[in-house]
Amino acid sequence: MKKLFTVLILIIIYSCQSVKKNNLFLEKRIPVAELKKDVDFTYQKLQRFHPNLYWYISKDNLDHKFDSLKITIQKPLTPNEFFFKLAPVVASVNEGHLRLRSLSRRYSKAEQKEFKTKKPLFALMDYKIIGDKLFVKENRENVGKIKAGTEILKINEENVADLIKKYRKLYSSDGENRTFQKYFINLTFFNYYTLENGYLDSVKLKTLCDNVIDEVQLKRQKKKAKEASEEKTLPKVTADQKIQDYDVASKSYNRSFKFLKSDSSVAYIKVKSFSATYAKKFYDQSFRKIKNAKSDYLILDVRDNLGGSLSEINTLYSYLTNEKFTLIKVPEMTSKTSGMYQNYFRGQSVFSSVLSAPAYPFFLAGNYFFSSKKNKKYYFREFASRPTKPKENAFTGKIYVLVNGASFSASSIISAKLKFENRAVIVGEETGGANDGTVAGVNNTVILPNSHLVLPIGLFLIRPNIEFENKSRGVFPDYAVDPNFEDIFGTDDKILNWTLEDIDFRKTVTGK
Q1: Which chain regions cross the lipid bilayer (predicted)?
Q2: Nearest Cα to 278, choosing from 311, 302, 306?
Q3: b/e for 107-134, b at 16 or more Cβ within 10 A?
Q4: Which among 427, 406, 407 is positioned nearest to 298, based on CA atoms?
Q5: Which residues have C-beta within 8 Å of that of residue 440, sequence separation ≥ 6?
Q6: Residue 373 dihedral angles phi and psi, to the nearest 5°
Q7: DSSP β-ladder status, 252-253 and 246-247
Q8: Are 389 and 324 in contact (CB under 8 A)?
Q9: How far apart are CA 142 and CA 463, in angstroms?
Q10: Domains of the chain
């Protein structure tokens, strides 16, 4: 017990020192020569590990961008000042998964405890970015008496339009796709703002509403005793909620299933993320219900689904076909050892790392033996690249897949496969993820030696088992339906409504 107590004390001391050291480093100005070394280091790692680096940009063009960046670095920079210079060059690869990560300020246990007693500063309102403008979509607690539909012009004297333009340079979609960016900036705007400014207790907003410009002071408020108590005593998740991957904090389901017609002729499955959590049970139960109901139509909604597990979409696809299939081609790598560079220990605590260390040699050996070489290319055996049999309760009726610009990664892979096999009608707008595949799977998370910025590099080229279009674009819908993204409140679901109308028309023509 004495030894255990000593270890715990040492871990606490190390944690405190780590927080202090990290935050001091954020203010450090790194010499020009070291920053340029980080630029070269970044490019070297991309060339070493990224399996399709010049897919959307030529080598000459990317060489020029990295060389030009070094010329612009003429004075010492802090790590995050350097981030805003390097990130756009990394993003110019135009591969949506590839994004440089900045360094965040760390907080002590006491500070984290204090944060839990306060409400988030920005999260009390819902926002929507349209073009270069930021609007308040909903103000649930009437913070600052700001009306829904109000435009926020400035945050602490910074023009919102300038911030949006700045942050848009930090990421990309796949290839020449342009539908992804408008969704992703809505997800990340305040993350980037917090990166630059930290967790603030208050901000001054300059707003525009009904042609009147106003200034509003937004302050972080203390949680009421009842709110804090409710957060500590979260309700238990039922077995049914678990299967739908229920999130207690947001009170929302990751997966949901229902019938949209009283006669159960139209089944509807919505998947927000392919998390793999309880996926097999969810699909087993859902497709049993669909079969028992003898539904003629299935609507699969993967709008705003940024992707996730290949295993889950392989399982899902096995319920959407009555033929043996192979979902993806065997993933490609840059070398036979690439898979061994996966981040085995990343994200683990010191204690869990010690416990998992004995299994590390087996992890390395497994990745090596799952790799192979053929025709001067290296491949990795992945479950979804093997032939799979359809499920007993596979749906054989008409399938509609609803997509938009935030349908990315795994969502695009399953959509591309269903479209290619003529197994589904794709409805909506071009997906944010590429039709011909992506670089993802697992990462080698590289730490730049001098700035300590983080660069996760996808190790596998994952492509659906189809004939490629080679258009550098997303999955194009069979029926394009404008989701009217410019509508701030977005109450009218145009894509789903079009689909239901098309089903009604088909029923009229076919009689079912």
Answers
A1: 350-370
A2: 311
A3: beeeeeeeeeeebebbebbebbbeeeeb
A4: 427
A5: 97, 307, 409, 458, 460, 462
A6: -125, 135
A7: antiparallel
A8: yes
A9: 47
A10: 21-106 (no CATH), 118-219 (2.30.42.10), 234-331+382-510 (3.90.226.10)
pLDDT of residue 4: 39
By the 8 A CB rule, do 65 and 94 touch?
no
> Residue 147, by phi and psi: left (phi above 0), alpha (psi -120 to 50) or beta?
beta
| C-beta separation of 177 from 416 below 8 A | no
Q: Which residues of 355-391 are buried (b: 16+ CB within 10 A; e: fewer)?
A: eeeeeeeeebeebeeebeeeeeebbbebebbeebebb
Give the residue from 203, 206, 202 showing the smallest Cα distance to 151: 206
Per-residue pLDDT band at 223 (split at 50, 70, 90): confident
Q: What are phi and psi of 436, to 5 degrees?
A: -95, 10
- How many other C-beta atoms lie within 10 A of the C-beta of residue 418? 23
**135, 126 Cβ separation under 8 angstroms:** no
Q: Which residue has the tokens 């280091």?
A: 41
Cβ proximity of 115 and 125 under 8 Å: no
**Per-residue model confidence as pLDDT tens digits over 114-137:** 878 888 889 889 999 999 999 999
Put the strands of the sheet holding 479-480 in their side by side order. Answer: 255-259, 266-271, 297-301, 398-403, 425-428, 479-480
CA distance 116 to 114: 5
In this predicted model, what pLDDT tens digit does every residue of 178-220 receive, in sequence order? 899 999 999 999 999 998 898 899 999 999 999 999 999 999 8
- Contact in structure between 463 and 477 (CB atoms under 8 Å): no
| Cβ-contact 305, 274 below 8 angstroms | yes
Which one-letter DSSP state was computed for residue 308?
B
**Coil, strand or helix at 359:** helix
Q: Give the pTM.
A: 0.91
